[in-house]
Each structure stands twice: as structure tokens, then as C-alpha cells.
């Protein structure tokens, strides 16, 4: 991803893609003082753009730093990047971090806060799983307690166990992994929230120790519009056996049907297909 033509917005201006570099003593690189967003632009419009920019500010606040650009400035910068690269349909990645500067220990209050925004063309996150249902592994890593880490920030540090889980899953031929939380309840996938269907009703984990995704909230709204009952609650591992359908939600994942989690199988049923197709229409509307 580093050596190519294109433009990246960095600290207020567009730079050449291949020159968008940071110093090796960047605090964020050593201590994970970094937060980011993943967004999708459809036909020239970023879906829920403002919510993503607001979440970026919120995440930075959770990590004790302030982004030196307002939400409005971030909104304008995202459009500038898309225009500069000629993208109408693209994934947008904003990232903010503590840079290199006065401090090279754990503390970093005197180091500058940096912001960069890149965009690239990124198709279906799970490839053809979109049609036939993704196969998920069950991760050995547990989502940590909100008393252990700022669980609701979209912060780089939270992704260490996600990368480990996803590598283990891919080594077993799976597209992703489902993670339990520190109490043993079903939590989410490594970069997407999870939903289950049983007897025409929907069950999804209460996001009390992980990201309450923007896609998740959109899909819950779509289900409520259809008068489908949605239970946001703690889900026990034993319950997986009784669920009939399952899907993942996320900006990159969009709505992806799940066919298998470990030894449990799910059908790509009518409600899953309806929600996946309606989400596609909504984001392009
Ligand atoms: N959980 C994790 C760990 C994620 O990385 C993402 C993707 N941002 C989500 C959930 C879904 O969030 P959203 O729908 O806001 O993209």
C-alpha cells in the first residue's frame, strides 16, 4: 500500500501517497496512542460521514488527546482526499496519533497530535462470503473489560488481539473469528459486530465492552422499521447451537452473512438476505 501514485491528506495538506511517512520515534507506533476510522464512500457520498468524524474525536478523547481539527474540517478533508484521487466509491481511513517529539517514554502529552486521511478502492471485505456465508473460527482471545482498556474507542491498541485472532482463523481456512468477551459472552468478530436470528427474532450482544458500530445501529433501525424484535443482551456460547441465521455488520464488512462459526452452522435465510440487500440500497441512496 505504500508505493503508489495518489494523494493522502496529512496534517492539513495533500501529500504524495508515497511520501506520506512518519518518523520512527512516533509515539503511536511504540505505545499505540492511535485512533482511527473506517468509512465507505458510495457514489460520491460517505455513509454516516459525520458520525465517523465525531467518533474519531471521541476515540481520541478516550486516549487522552485532542485532534487539532474540528469535525467540520475533517469532513472537508475527507472530501478533498476523495476528489484528489478521483474516487466516487472508496474506503476512507482517517487516523490520528501522537507523533514524535519531546517525549519518548510512556507519557506523550508534549508530542504533537497528527491526523492523516487516506482513501482507496476496497471491494467486499469477505470476498464471495457475501453470497454463501462466511466461515468463522472461534478465537482464543477475549474482548477485555471496559475497566481494562477504553473498550468503546476505535483505538489501535484494541486491535492487537483482533489481528492475532484473524491470523489464527485464516490459518484454518476461515475468513474471520468470533470473539467472546472477558465474561465468556459472545462479543463480535475482529472488525465487525454480530447478529443472530431465531424464531423470527434477532439477538445481538449488548455492546458493553466493544464498539457499538455505526452499521450495527443502522441495521437495528432497519429491523425495528420491519417490526422485527431485537434483543440486545448477553449471549451465552451454548446458545449458538439454537440460532438459525447469523450475519456480521461493519463499514468494511457491510452486512455479511455467516454460514459457520466453529462447528455451528447457519443458513443464509430470508431475513439475512433482506437486511443485506436493503443495507446496500440504503448506503447508495
Ligand atoms: N467492531 C470492530 C472491532 C470494528 O473494527 C468495527 C469496524 N469499525 C466494528 C465493530 C463495526 O463498526 P462500524 O459499523 O462503525 O464500522
Automatic annotation (TrEMBL):
Pathway: Amino-acid biosynthesis; L-isoleucine biosynthesis; L-isoleucine from 2-oxobutanoate: step 4/4; Amino-acid biosynthesis; L-valine biosynthesis; L-valine from pyruvate: step 4/4; Amino-acid biosynthesis; L-leucine biosynthesis; L-leucine from 3-methyl-2-oxobutanoate: step 4/4. This is Branched-chain-amino-acid aminotransferase. Its EC number is 2.6.1.42. It catalyses: L-isoleucine + 2-oxoglutarate = (S)-3-methyl-2-oxopentanoate + L-glutamate; L-leucine + 2-oxoglutarate = 4-methyl-2-oxopentanoate + L-glutamate; L-valine + 2-oxoglutarate = 3-methyl-2-oxobutanoate + L-glutamate. It comes from Roseovarius atlanticus. Acts on leucine, isoleucine and valine. Transmembrane segments: none annotated. It is an enzyme of class 2 (transferase). Keywords: Amino-acid biosynthesis, Aminotransferase, Branched-chain amino acid biosynthesis, Pyridoxal phosphate, Transferase.
Amino acid at each position: 500500500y505504500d508505493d503508489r501514485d495518489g494523494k493522502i491528506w496529512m496534517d492539513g495538506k495533500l501529500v504524495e501517497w508515497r511520501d506520506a511517512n512518519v518518523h520512527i520515534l512516533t509515539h503511536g507506533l511504540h505505545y499505540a496512542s492511535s485512533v482511527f476510522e473506517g468509512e465507505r464512500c458510495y457514489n460520491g457520498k460517505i455513509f454516516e460521514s459525520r458520525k465517523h468524524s465525531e467518533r474519531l474525536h471521541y476515540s481520541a478523547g478516550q486516549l487522552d488527546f485532542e485532534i487539532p481539527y474540528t469535525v467540520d474540517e475533517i469532513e472537508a478533508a475527507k472530501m478533498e482526499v476523495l476528489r484528489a484521487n478521483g474516487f466516487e466509491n472508496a474506503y476512507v481511513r482517517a487516523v490520528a496519533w501522537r507523533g514524535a517529539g519531546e517525549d519518548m517514554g510512556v507519557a506523550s502529552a508534549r508530542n504533537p497530535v497528527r491526523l492523516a486521511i487516506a482513501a482507496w478502492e476496497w471491494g467486499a471485505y469477505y470476498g464471495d462470503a457475501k453470497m454463501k456465508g462466511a466461515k468463522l473460527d472461534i478465537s482464543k482471545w477475549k474482548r477485555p473489560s471496559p475497566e481494562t482498556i477504553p473498550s468503546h474507542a476505535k483505538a489501535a491498541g484494541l486491535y492487537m488481539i483482533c489481528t492475532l485472532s484473524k491470523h489464527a482463523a485464516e490459518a484454518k481456512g476461515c475468513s474471520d473469528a468470533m470473539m467472546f468477551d472477558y465474561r465468556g459472552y459472545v462479543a463480535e468478530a475482529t472488525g465487525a459486530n454480530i447478529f443472530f436470528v431465531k424464531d423470527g427474532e434477532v439477538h445481538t450482544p449488548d455492546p458493553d465492552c466493544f464498539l457499538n458500530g455505526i452499521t450495527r445501529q443502522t441495521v437495528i433501525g432497519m429491523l425495528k422499521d420491519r417490526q422485527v424484535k431485537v434483543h440486545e443482551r448477553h449471549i451465552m456460547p451454548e446458545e449458538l447451537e439454537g440460532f438459525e441465521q447469523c450475519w456480521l455488520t461493519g463499514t468494511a464488512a457491510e452486512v455479511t452473512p455467516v454460514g459457520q462459526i466453529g462447528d455451528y452452522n447457519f443458513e443464509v435465510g430470508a431475513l439475512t438476505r433482506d437486511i443485506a440487500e436493503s443495507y446496500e440500497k440504503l448506503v447508495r441512496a
